[in-house]
Amino acid sequence: EHVGDGRRGRNIQPAGRGPLRVLFSMGSFWYVRLFESVIRELAGRGHAVHLLGSGEGKDSDRQWLGAAEALMADCPGVSIGWAPREIDDEWVDLRLMVHLGLDYLRFLEPAYRDTPALAARARSRTPRPLVTLAESPVLNTRLGRRVLRRGLRLVERCLPLGRQLAAAIAGERPDVVLVTPLITLGSRQHEVVRVARELGIPSALCVGSWDHLSSKALIRERPDRVLVWNETQRQEAHAYHGMSRDRVVVTGAQCFDQWFDRRPTLSRDAFCARVRLDAGRPYVLWVCSALFDGSPSEAEFVARWVAALRASADGRLRDVGVLIRPHPKRGFEWDSVDLSGLANVVLWPKQAEAPFHEDAKANYFDSLYHSAAVVGLNTSAQIEAGIIGRPVHTVLLPEFRPNQQGTLHFHYLLDGGLLRAGPDLAAHLAQLSASLAADTAAAPLNRAFVEQFVRPRGLGVPATPIFADTVEAIVAAGARARAEAWWAPLGRRALLPLARRTRGTVALHAHRERRRREKQVERQAERSEAVARRASARLAAREARTAAHAAARQERLREKRLAQDAAKGRERLQ
C-alpha cells in the first residue's frame, strides 16, 4: 500500500578521499529527528559527525537530547556539544536587533500580504524602534525597504563574530559545516556560516522542513550549497532568498525515507486492542498541528468535530472509530478536554510523543497504517499519511485560516493534490464518508504528489544516500577563504558606542521571554503528565474494581456450585 516500490539508491563515496569531519550545527536537537538517517549514513561511511546544539537554547534543548545521545551510542563516529554562549559580548544586543530587523522586513513584502500571522510573529519579536522605522510612511515602500535592508545589512557585516563560537568551530577542524534550520527569527547560526566562510570551510544549509524557506527568516549569510527536497523549494531558495540555482541541490526529503519500506509492528486487531478502539470498525486518525500562538484551541475544535461525526445521519460517520494523536509540542491543549463520554474515541498516546526512538516510531507508523483515513489542519503528518497511502483530509474554517491558507507552504499540499479539502464542515464530512466507503487505498492518488514533493529523483530512490553523496561532493569541491571587507573594522569602530548604548536592552529581554515560554511549556508538560498519571490511576483503579467484582462473582458461583453439589450428595444418601 506504500507509494514507494522499495528499491534503494546506491552509496557512492568519492574515490581516494578518506573519512571526513562533519560539523552539523542545529538550532536544537529536535532536528536530529529530521536528519537521523543522514547522520547514520555519514557515520556508516566512516565519517565523524559532531552535532553542535545551540548554546542559546541549551536548557530547553535537553528535552530532545535523548535523540542525540541515542545516535551517539549507536554510531561511534557521532559526538555532541553546544555552541558557547557569549555572555560578556558587548555586541550581542546590537547584533540581535539587526538580525530581527532584517527578518521582519521580509514579511512587509507584497508576497506576504495574505499571511498576516507570519508578519505578526516577526513583529512581536522585533525591537520597537526598528518596527517603527520599518513601518514609517517613508520606508514602508519597496524602495524604502530596500534602502533600510541595505543599511542594516552593512551594519551586520561590520559586527564582529563571537570569538568563542569561532574558536569552537575551528577547534573541531571540520571538513564541512552543515547548518539547520538557519532561518529562525534572529538566528545566530548565520555566524556559523560566516565563520566557515572566513576559515575556508565549505558550508551547506540543510532545509529541515517544507515550510522553512517560505515562512521563516531570510538566508542572510549565503552558504556554498543549499540542500532542498524538491524543485518547489529550489525555486523558493532562488526567488525568496536570492540563491543562485546552481548552488541549490535537490536531494529529496530524507526525513521521510524511513516510512517508505516500513511494515507495521502490530496487526490491526492487536493495535486496536492496545489503544482501546473497536477492531470491528474502521477508524479515522486525527493528526494535530503546531499552530501559531494565539490560535483557537485545536483540541476544542476536534471535540466539536467528533460530536459532528456522532450526530451525523450517515452511519459510516456516526459509527467510525476516532484516534487522536496530539502534537508533541502541544499536548497540553488536551488537559481540559474530556473525551470519556464518547464511545470508540481515543486520545493516544496520552502523553504526546515525537517519533524519536524505535517504539515511538512504531506507535506512530502503526496508527497511520491501520487507519482508514487521516485528517489534520496543517502538519507534516499529512505528508507521511500520503506516503503510506491513506486518503488525507482537511477542513477549511475561518478560525484556522491563518494556519492554513494564510501560509504559503499549506498551498503546496492543497494545490499539489494531496489534500481532500472541505470548504466547510458539512462538505468535509461528505468527503470523509466517501473515503470510508471506498474499497481502494489512496496510494495511486497520492503517487504524483509524493513523487514531485518527496522523492523527485524517483519513488524508488531514497533521498538519504543522495544527501550523503552531496555532502561528500561539497567537500570535494572545496571552498576559498573569504576575509571580511576591508572597511568592516572601520564600521565596527564607528558602531561601538551604539553597541555599548544598546547593551542589555534586547538580548536579556529575549532570553527572559524565551525562558518564560520554556517554563510555560515545562509547566504545561508537567500538568499533562499529572493528568495522564491521574487518568492512568483511575483506569487502573477501575480495572482493579472490575477484576475484584469478577473474582467475587466467580467465588459466589463456585460456592453456589459447591452447595448444589453438596445438596445433590445428601439427596443420593437419602
Plain-language structure description:
With 574 residues, the protein is of the alpha/beta class. It has 23 helices and 13 strands. The protein has a seven-stranded parallel beta sheet, with helices on both faces. A six-stranded parallel beta sheet has the order 10-9-8-11-12-13, sandwiched between helices. Helix 18 links the parallel strand 12 and strand 13. The longest helix is centred in the C-terminal third of the chain and has 67 residues, at 507-573. The chain is elongated, with a radius of gyration of 28 Å. The termini are far apart. The model is unreliable at 1-16 (pLDDT under 50).
Short description:
This protein has 574 residues and is an alpha/beta fold.
- Give the overall silhouette: elongated
Average residue pLDDT: 88
Compute the number of helices.
Answer: 23
User: Going across the major beta sheet, what is the strand order?
Assistant: 3-2-1-4-5-6-7
Alpha-carbon distance between the two ends: 72 Å
The count of strands amounts to 13
What profile does the largest beta sheet have? 7 strands, parallel
Report the portion of residues in β strands: 5-15%
Percent of residues in helices: 40-55%
Return the structural class. alpha/beta
Q: Evaluate the radius of gyration.
A: 28 Å
* Poorly predicted ranges: 1-16
